[in-house]
Each structure stands twice: as C-alpha cells, then as structure tokens.
Amino acid sequence: MTTPFVVGAYAILPPERAEHGSFYAALPAWVTGLEIPWKLEVGMDPDPAWFAAQVARFTDSVLTLIPATMVSIGSDPWFGLASPDADGRAAALAMAREALDAVERLHEDAGAAVVRWVHVHSGPSDRAESGPFERSLGELADDFARVGVRPVIEHCDAAAGVGPGEKRFLTLAD
Hints:
Layout: E1 6-7, H1 20-26, E2 33-37, H2 48-55, E3 61-64, H3 66-75, H4 86-110, E4 115-120, H5 130-147, E5 150-153
Parallel strand pairs: 1-2, 2-3, 3-4, 4-5
C-alpha cells in the first residue's frame, strides 16, 4: 500500500473551466487524491459526469465542506454541525447528507470509489458547542458508512487561538 498524497488542487485550478481537464491530466502519477470542495448550488462541479471522468484516478480524495459551510454561516450565523440552534444544525446536517449523496453518485459515475474522507467542521463561528457537534457526528455515522467514507474533523482555527481567527470554530480541547 502506498501512502496517499492528497493535493488541494482546487485552490490552483486555472480560471477557465475549459482548462481544468488538462490541469487534472498534468498532475503527476504520485498524486493519489484531490481535496475537492463542496460548493452551494453546484456541488463538486456543474457537470458531474465530466468531473467523474477527470478525477476517477484520484482514489484517495477528500471532499471538504468548508466552502459551503462558510458561505452558509455568512447568511445564517447559526448554521453548523456544532450549532446549539436546532434549525442551524438541521440545515448543516441536510447539507452534509446532500454532499454524501453526491459522493455516492460520483463513485457510480467514476466506476470506483474516489473519495475516502469527508472534511466536516465544527461551525458555527463563535457559537459552536461540543454537545451538538457530537450528536451531529452520531447522526451522520450511518450515512458515512453507507457511502463508504470516513469523516475527518478539519480543525481550522478556534476563537481562543493565536490571533482573532477567521473561522472561530471549536478548540481542539472541545
């Protein structure tokens, strides 16, 4: 078994979508996975079948929910898997399940499992609590198992860290 090598390639994709295919093709063979962003309204890509063909060889990929999470927090400060607000937590759970369903479809379109991990986050900013976060992870456990992926808590930054923090999620101790 080789050690997975995951690249956050979405941050350096060419600005023109027409160039994305050649970008993915140019990544060296030792890159075994991509960090794939989950975005509101478009999911992983506006053309899921095309996207599956581009990323099928990257079988150690991780889907990160951070782009959609931060946009959602921007419009609803109670949004998040760690939200003490029932509506904010329910909205985050629904988004996570939508993303997991899309991972399942990506695997079908690619003909193999591409995503191995899903980054989840302990939002909302400055309002997160560990109890609701723990409950959310428990409620999503069967969904992760059904799709065959593992959750990874991407810590980001906490409100009590060095400096003011951008995301201000739970601390590592929480």
